[in-house]
Amino acid sequence: MTTLQHGLFIAPYHDVTESPTIALRRDVEIVEWVDRLGFAEAWFGEHHSTGWETICSPELMIAAAAERTSRIRLGTGVVSMPYHNPLMVANRILQLDHMTMGRTMFGMGPGLLPTDADMIGVDVKSLREKLTEVAEVIVPLLSGEEVTRETSWFTLNKARTHLLPYTQPHPEIAVASAITPSGGMLAGKFGFGMLCVAATETAGFDVLEENWRIANEIAAENGVTMDPAKLRLVVPMHVAHTRDQARADVAQGLARWVEYFDRVAPAGMRGMSGAGDPAELLVNAGRAVIGTPDDAIAMIEKLQAKQGEFGVVLLQAHNWAEWEETKKSYELYARFVMPHFARTNRNRQSSYADLENAIDRLEAKRTAGAEAAFAAWEEKTGRKAG
User: Fold this and answer.
1) Buried/exposed code over 322-331 (b: 16+ C-beta within 10 A; e: otherwise)
2) Residue 197's beta-bridge partner residues?
3) d(CA 310, CA 48)
4) Residues 6 or more apart from 129 whose CB is under 8 A from it?
5) What is the average pLDDT score of the chain?
6) How many CA atoms lie within 13 A of 11 on its CB side?
7) Element (H, E) at 355
8) Phi, psi values for residue 237, rounded to 5°
9) Sign of torsion over alpha carbons 289, 295, 296, 300
10) Is-above-0.90 flag for pTM?
């Protein structure tokens, strides 16, 4: 049985009207906060356009967050590999592997924003093919082996990393998976973990079990076993004590986010902007949790029913709410949602149930014992106590 873990997926999303300096600092601070709350992982994205998703180097964010945390694992979520020579990326990941003493995870993908690729002249249609070519060399590179390979866009000539891995045999590798089967096929061929970044989007939810089945079929063909503990599902959530409070918290920020998302999302995920209350649209479509800890539990159980076992639920760091309300949301999640799935309170709840069932019987005995003590005192002294 896979034990469910919990983490953050930080694209990030920051309104273009806000200070980017404060936004970047808060991306680090929120990881420090959830580390204290017991979250297991945090992943940072890579983007170079659109203005909202302001992290250009997930490696820099990992280095900063690692110095302010003690145990949370930190991942690239994801490096857009068609924009980089794989040796350079492998060197940076292994440096982080040493700097974090094994807390670094390597997530890779084809690149989400077409405007990123367009700025540097990379054909958007070629991104998945390029990612496959990287996958063929990244494991030996991260393992410290020598690699010679020439493709249409990168050359490796007896290439090897400067450092051998701190984590043996190499840092954990995960590949982004959204709607198409390409992520599952790549994960299955090489035994990578999967980052399902569109798990609650309608199209992404519909293919969850199918993409996992594909990954397992390809894995079997290649003598590899897929590990559900390395399957991660991303979910947008904002939690408060009541549903009304949760909706009030996100009202302004969510409306702005919807405007942005409708411009960058694939065609099948658009259509929220101007269509009504965005919170109601997202919740009714099952695309997000904007509610209570019980609503968060229900969403995760829905994903488990659809997907089966998976290892980590990653809360999308969407910044819909103000800073204190955002921190409170993660705190409520840690207080009430994480213990539910870990069954942390099983013994406490059993003890409380025993109390409810036995209190009347035991109270009668306790009263009888007290009365006997008073009687013994009176018999001995001839005086009433009290």
Assistant:
1) eeebbbbbbe
2) none
3) 31
4) none
5) 95
6) 26
7) helix 346-381
8) -145, 145
9) negative
10) yes
pLDDT number for residue 383? 83
User: If you search the block for the tokens 């063929």, which residue do you land on?
Assistant: 136
Domains and CATH numbers, the chain: 5-345 (3.20.20.30), 346-386 (no CATH)
| Residues comprising the chain, all counted | 386
Taking a C-beta distance cutoff of 8 angstroms, is the pair 37, 343 a contact?
no
Would you state the structure tokens that stand for residue 233, as one six-digit string? Answer: 């599902």
Tokens of residue 215, six digits: 């990954």
Residues 111-140: what's their mean pLDDT? 97
Which of the two residues, 102 and 272, has the higher pLDDT score?
A: 102
The tokens for 56 are 């250009």
| Backbone angles phi and psi of 127, in degrees to 5 | -65, -45
Give the pLDDT confidence score for residue 269 in this predicted structure. Answer: 60
Q: Where are the alpha helices (DSSP H) in the chain?
A: 20-37, 58-66, 86-99, 114-119, 127-142, 182-190, 202-206, 208-221, 243-264, 278-284, 293-307, 323-332, 338-342, 346-381
Bridge partners for 105 per DSSP: 75
Q: Which of 80, 79, 81, 75 is nearest to 97 (CA)?
A: 75
Q: What is the pLDDT of residues 66-93, one digit of tens each?
A: 999 999 999 999 999 999 999 999 999 9
Beta bridge partners of 323: none
User: In this structure, what DSSP letter does residue 82 have?
Assistant: G
Name the DSSP class of 157: E
| SS3 category, 137 | helix
Q: How far is Cα 51 from Cα 44, in angstroms, rounded to an integer?
A: 16
Q: One-letter amino acid identity for 297?
A: I
- Residue-wise pLDDT for 61-70, tens only, equals 999 999 999 9
Long-range pairs of 262-267 with CB within 8 A, sequence gap ≥ 24: 263/50, 264/50, 264/52, 264/112, 264/113, 266/178, 266/179
Residue 386 has pLDDT above 70, yes or no: no
**DSSP-assigned states of every residue in 159-210:** E--SS--SSSS---EEEEE-SSTHHHHHHHHHT-EEEETTTTSHHHHHTHHH
Cα distance between residue 310 and residue 307, in whole Å: 7
* Rounded-to-integer distance, Cα 19 and Cα 54, Å: 11
pLDDT higher than 80, residue 368 = yes
pLDDT above 70: residue 270: no
Q: What are residue 47's phi and psi, to 5 degrees?
A: -145, 155
